[in-house]
Specification:
By secondary structure, the protein is an alpha/beta fold. The chain contains 21 helices and 16 strands. The protein has three domains: about 5-140 and about 185-340, 3-Layer(aba) Sandwich (Rossmann fold), CATH 3.40.50; about 145-180, no CATH class; about 360-520, 3-Layer(bba) Sandwich (Glucose Oxidase, domain 1), CATH 3.50.30.80. It has an eight-stranded mixed beta sheet. Strands 2-1-3-4 form a four-stranded parallel beta sheet, with helices on both faces. Strands 5-6 form a two-stranded antiparallel sheet. The chain starts with 11 loop residues before the first helix and ends in a 14-residue tail after the last helix. The mean pLDDT is about 85.
């Protein structure tokens, strides 16, 4: 039901209530959901951005109301916040659906940049199936330290560099002053911007929103344009379930792989597919991972990427290089996405499509990942080493910082999967990089990983350790075999030994709050998109 369904007589009290709030019920009614928090520099300007979107809605002859959803800042509060952050954003669709039904909205604009916020909002857009667009809070300007530009996430690596003696601790005050006025997403990390980039690739955002600098005239102009465009989409009755076809999701997945791949990007597409009853699973990722990488993650720069054509240019190269990639799905402006795609400006940031080359992601399976896993690697494609097992990232961080790990080992960081909050290994991987250890060890987790590491990292291991899977049965000292060319991830143990360990297995007590325990009982695995389980 929407505001168009008002009955003049029966719904008269509701109309009077809205009119008391200066809302003209004769006009389309657009909800602007923004991820706002006074403790989140990513969303520091979300409210201001939402107000510019509202101005665009008003200019197009419609009414707008702004609502806020939680924005948890894991960058500040670390691993415990990361667990809560993933879980709380999985409830955004429930909140949006409740507000849509209660307030008779005609469309949504979702204002956010943080990956988990955007991912939860995309699920909300599909669930509510009202005309929907996404607007980012923008990208943070470079942090200038000692005359050089740094990204926000690179600060994590400074900790490891200081620990290893590579960097003088005297530089730390410079970090503090550099970040003082920052707002928006990290400009040096595709992974941190992957969800909003995918929304743009799906045609659910005005071209350029994923790479625009925060709080600039260009940013405000895109917010205005988004507000105007959502009213046009309402008039055309263009909803997510009409535009998010099988082709659109496959192209978005191809886009993410071409960008170098990110755990959040992959799970965002998988969850959208499940909601749309489009069958994707981890095994299908293998064929997508054969695509070449068109942007180098280690040199990613959101401003250079956007200046070279951004998302639209990557889509253009994909469609030009692979006839199986379609851009015929509908974009935000109600034209085929192929009309939005365009060649790169300089070709310096966005690479040409080279057949026969592959990206950095690899699908793995074996007795440690019967339902699959995703690996990214630097120079090493085959790795064998002794396991060092950690049941939390906090344990791993302490061991890394205290130099308790050896070169050639495999760090097993488990109980990080969806049932435990689906932690992203940010601090541990950044420490390894800062200490120049990331290419000397391998990391295996059932959680997610960012693009911190230059070494071999395996994530999204499924089934997760919480289910007493093979990952839960690994012990320190076991030999782990990772073989990317053969798509294998195994522990060197016979099935008989694994079965015996499973009979003896006792799941450790995990530091989960009652809220997280409730969440874990409601939501599915990574392979199934981490969605609310269907009631039989």
């Amino acid at each position: 039901m929407s505001s168009r369904d008002f009955n003049d007589i029966i719904d008269f009290p509701q109309k009077i209530a809205l009119q008391s709030l200066n809302i003209d019920v004769s006009k389309p009614f657009i909800a602007i959901f923004c991820a706002q928090s006074g403790l989140s520099f990513v969303h520091k300007n979300a409210q201001n951005t939402a107000e510019w979107v509202a101005k665009g809605v008003a200019k197009a002859g419609a009414e707008a109301a702004v609502f806020c959803v939680p924005s948890v800042t894991d960058f500040i509060f670390g691993v415990s916040a990361e667990r809560s952050k993933f879980a709380i954003n999985k409830f955004v669709p429930l909140y949006a659906e409740t507000m849509a039904q209660s307030n008779l909205f005609d469309g949504f604009v979702f204002v956010a940049s943080d990956n988990q916020s955007v991912s939860g909002m995309l699920e909300a857009a599909i669930t509510c199936n009202l005309p929907s667009l996404f607007m980012s809070c923008g990208v943070m300007p470079p942090l200038k330290i000692a005359g050089k530009n740094f990204g926000l996430n690179e600060i994590y690596s400074f900790v490891g560099a200081v620990k290893s003696g590579k960097v003088n601790p005297a530089v730390l005050p410079d970090l503090k002053s550099a970040i003082a006025d920052g707002l928006g997403n990290d400009y040096k990390s595709y992974a941190e911007n992957s969800a909003i980039c995918i929304c743009e690739a799906l045609g659910l955002a005005v071209s350029g929103v994923s790479t625009v600098r925060a709080d600039t005239p260009a940013h405000r102009e895109l917010a205005l344009k988004t507000g105007k465009q959502i009213v046009e989409m309402y008039k055309e009755k263009l909803t997510p379930r009409m535009t998010l076809s099988d082709e659109a999701l496959k192209t978005a997945l191809c886009f993410d792989v071409a960008m170098g791949g990110s755990c959040t990007g992959l799970t965002t597409v998988l969850s959208a597919a499940r909601l749309l009853n489009i069958r994707f699973d981890m095994k299908e990722l293998k064929k997508f991972f054969q695509l070449p990488r068109l942007v180098k993650n280690e040199n990613f720069d959101a401003y250079a990427f956007g200046g070279d054509g951004g998302v639209a240019a990557v889509l253009y190269e994909l469609a030009k290089g692979n006839k199986n990639i379609s851009l015929d799905y509908t974009a935000y402006d109600m034209k085929p996405m192929s009309r939005s795609a365009r060649p790169s400006v300089s070709g310096e940031t966005i690479l040409p499509y080279l057949k026969g080359t592959t990206g950095r992601c690899t699908y793995l399976s074996g007795n440690l990942a019967e339902d699959g896993a995703v690996a990214v690697s630097g120079s090493q494609t085959v790795f064998e080493g002794k396991a060092i097992v950690f049941n939390s990232e906090e344990e791993a961080v302490n061991a890394i910082a205290n130099r308790e790990i050896d070169e050639g080992c495999v760090l097993i960081i488990r109980y990080q999967g969806p049932s435990c909050g689906f932690n992203e290994l940010r601090t541990s991987l950044a420490l390894l990089r800062g200490m120049d250890m990331d290419e000397k060890v391998a990391v295996v987790t059932d959680g997610r990983f960012s693009d911190f590491s230059r070494g071999l990292v395996v994530g999204l291991v499924s089934p997760q350790a919480q289910t007493d899977s093979g990952l839960a049965l690994v012990r320190t000292g076991d030999t782990i075999e990772i073989n990317l060319p053969k798509n294998k991830l195994n522990v060197d143990l016979k099935a008989k030994e694994l079965n015996q360990r499973k009979r003896q297995q006792e799941t450790p007590e995990l530091p989960l709050s009652d809220n997280l325990k409730a969440y874990s009982s409601l939501f599915s695995s990574a392979e199934e998109g981490c969605l609310i389980k269907k009631i039989q």
